[in-house]
Design brief:
Shape of chain B: globular
Number of strands of chain A: 7
Distance between the termini of chain B: 23 Å
Radius of gyration of chain B: 19 Å
Oligomer: heterodimer
Structural class of chain B: alpha/beta
Shape of chain A: globular
Number of helices of chain B: 13
Order of helices and strands of chain A: HHHEHHEHEEEHHEHEH
Number of helices of chain A: 10
Helix content of chain B: 25-40%
Strand order of the largest sheet of chain A: 1-2-3-7-6
Largest sheet of chain B: 7 strands, mixed
Order of helices and strands of chain B: EHEHHEHEHHEHEHEEEEHEEHEHEHH
Radius of gyration of chain A: 17 Å
Number of strands of chain B: 14
């Protein structure tokens, strides 16, 4: 049984990290980061089997690939608080000479990151490759990936989606963050995605849905259910509905905070809604 | 003039296939990917002998590059292969972010490069690929000249840690370099010593340069011929050593003069030893349908074009 109190404290602290990181450099992407906080906290602290330390090959442990790299704040905060690198390093987000680049990279050697992402639509292909390597190596651990819903407009995803089912890549769990928003507005206004779950189903995936991706219990149960469906001949997709900007009232129900930092006053309001739990960096 | 014997015309892509067959038998970490062009890439034997290490991705090159990047995570050495056009221009951003910037140990293996793809025409004849690939930080760029050298290069890049672009072609051309040669990445090969002019060539133009040198010798012109199989990293020392002796250069390649070997040589010369240079290359144009020989003649990429360039450059000394 997960310790929901502890996990919820971590969620709140990660939200504070995201807001403070983005505010400090007046740039970055808080909306999608806040929307996926529960997912990251659950994945790294309840779901994935991880070795101590970090090596690129990741043999003998579960792997995670972030395809929508712009939500780097939540990724960095959760990695740091999991112990991949010093929490104080969050102070360097997007600054010159930092390992915490605007979008995640391997170039500066940041532990926890296995491929660069940011140019959208590439992460699922990389995750498939890593899953195939696990199969060749006889490594029964899983590969997880996260993708924005707007990102599915990139055609490479559909090449990857077709490949994964056609080749029974059944050690892969790809989650779609269905927040319904992208830079220019609602996904259904910019370029309609329609029924994402059904699209994956007709492409041959085993699909499950998490109705509220900002409810820790639902996220953990959904991810555990997905794990139980691996190894059965189909890649597994989770369509997870989230609220962009979750946890900060004025950032919710809009796409305005996709890539915008809060002002000093807005930060104060946002932090007041998320009181410090585990200690700020 | 050093004599070279054609051991029998073969296509460089078959050299790639032969190299993959060897790697399949000797290096268990090597895996192969292809985008619906197995026959064209000559990898049938590798696939037959190592079915569990081959990945058919279908007509989906972007996905192929991403999967190749992912396969390195877990220690595999992926050789991702298709036509040069689809291995570079079509998937530049996938190579840039998922492979080059991410420092992945992927070998991008590109057949049917340049005009000599022939009748399929300009949609398939890429003349910009060397430029695109050499501009990527950390990317090694190799364009071997014949079957034997392509086979040796294929095997050598498996031992090299980091992304590589290996470029080869479709037509059967002279096979004149040694069987079972050792391939040293980044090392220029002196094919003929001369004193009047340096001809620096890559790929299919190397054999044409040897023919040109022989014809020039008959006219009393002594041409040094250097085979640059590795365009990046370039063997600056070998180039400078030769040019300090001859005082002028002709570069020859099956590629646009913009972004190709010629411009890489120009940079070395401009920095260290400014020297007259002529470019045997396509002149910022697309190709067209035709036989390989017709195209090389029309676009000025054969021994005759090299000889004319030598005459021009000698006047500028």
């Amino acid at each position: 049984m997960p310790n929901y109190d502890e996990l919820q404290q971590l969620v709140t602290q990660v939200r504070r990290d995201i807001l403070r990181m983005v505010h400090k450099v007046n740039s970055g992407h808080p909306g999608g980061s806040l929307g996926c906080t529960e997912f990251f906290v659950a994945l790294y602290n309840e779901i994935m089997e991880l070795k101590d330390g970090f090596d690129m090959d990741g043999i003998g442990e579960d792997l995670f690939f972030l395809s929508n790299g712009h939500i780097s704040p939540v990724f960095y905060s959760v990695l740091a608080r999991k112990g991949y690198f010093p929490i104080d390093e969050l102070n360097t987000f997007r600054l010159i000479d930092s390992r915490l680049q605007g979008h995640p990279t391997t170039h500066e050697g940041l532990p926890g990151v296995r491929v660069a992402s940011g140019s959208l639509g590439q992460g699922m292909s990389v995750a498939i490759g890593a899953a195939l390597a696990k199969k060749i190596n006889g490594d029964e651990h899983l590969v997880f990936s996260l993708h924005g819903d707007g990102e599915l407009q990139e055609g490479q995803n559909w090449e990857a989606i077709m490949y994964a089912s056609g080749n029974k890549v059944d050690n892969l769990i790809s989650t779609i963050d269905r927040n319904g928003q992208q830079i220019d507005g609602a996904t259904e206004d910019v370029l309609p995605l329609g029924d994402v779950a059904e699209k994956f189903r007709v492409f041959g995936w085993d699909v499950l849905e998490i109705e509220n991706g900002n409810d820790l219990e639902q996220v953990i149960n959904g991810l555990n259910e997905a794990k139980s469906r691996t190894g059965k001949g189909k890649p597994v997709c989770i369509v997870m509905t989230t609220e962009m900007g979750n946890g900060v009232d004025f950032m919710m129900h809009t796409h305005a905070w996709h890539g915008k930092a809060p002002s000093d006053e807005q930060l104060e309001t946002a932090l007041a809604q998320n009181p410090e739990t585990l200690g700020d960096y | 003039m050093t004599k070279y014997t054609d051991q029998g015309k073969q296509d460089t892509r078959s050299g790639y296939g032969a190299g993959m067959t060897e790697l399949g038998r000797t290096n268990p970490n090597v895996v192969s990917l292809c985008a619906d062009l197995i026959g064209s890439l000559k990898i049938d034997t590798f696939i037959k002998e190592n079915p569990e290490r081959f990945f058919q991705v279908g007509i989906a090159e972007a996905n192929m590059m991403g999967i190749a990047a992912g396969l390195t995570i877990g220690g595999k050495i992926p050789f991702a292969s298709t036509f040069a056009n689809f291995a570079t221009g079509r998937v530049y951003d996938q190579i840039r972010q998922s492979i080059a910037y991410s420092g992945k140990n992927v070998k991008i293996c590109a057949s049917h490069a340049g005009l000599t793809l022939g009748e399929d025409g300009a949609t398939h004849q890429i003349l910009e690929d060397i430029g695109m690939m050499k501009m990527l930080p950390g990317m090694t760029v190799i364009n071997p000249c014949d079957f034997n050298q392509t086979k040796a290069a294929t095997m050598a890049i498996a031992e090299h840690q980091g992304p590589v672009y290996l470029r080869f072609g479709r037509p059967k051309v002279a096979n004149f370099t040694p069987v079972d040669q050792t391939f040293e990445i980044g090392k220029a090969l002196m094919l003929n010593e001369g004193s009047d002019v340096t001809i620096i060539a890559t790929g299919h133009l190397v054999w044409q340069s040897l023919i040109a040198a022989e014809n020039l010798e008959n006219q009393g012109i002594s041409a040094e011929v250097i085979n640059i199989h590795t365009i990046k990293p370039l063997d600056d020392e070998a180039i400078l050593k030769s040019v300090r002796k001859t005082g002028c250069v002709v570069t020859a390649e099956e590629h646009n003069y913009l972004g190709g070997l010629g411009e890489s040589v120009s940079r070395v010369l401009a920095l260290h030893y400014p020297t007259p240079q002529e470019f045997v290359a396509t002149q910022d144009t697309f190709g067209e349908s035709g036989t390989p020989d017709q195209l090389m003649e029309k676009y000025g990429l054969n021994n005759k074009a090299i000889e004319e360039a030598v005459v021009r450059v000698l006047k500028r000394k």
